[in-house]
# Entry
Amino acid sequence: MKQHGKRLRQEGAIKRTEASILAYEEKLKSCEDDNEKKLLKKKIERAQTTIKNTKVK
# Structure
């Protein structure tokens, strides 16, 4: 059983997703369009859910 590769992959995915959240939050601050704000908020929410579900136990 090879679990080490899975854990590394999960940790890498979490780091990338956290970086995406930061980028989305920065875009949200400078965003003027309400429709785009709504989409960015939804992306942030989904990414946070993904991190919560992916956390290594």
Remarks:
- The first helix runs from residue 4 to 30.
- The chain has a mean pLDDT of 90.
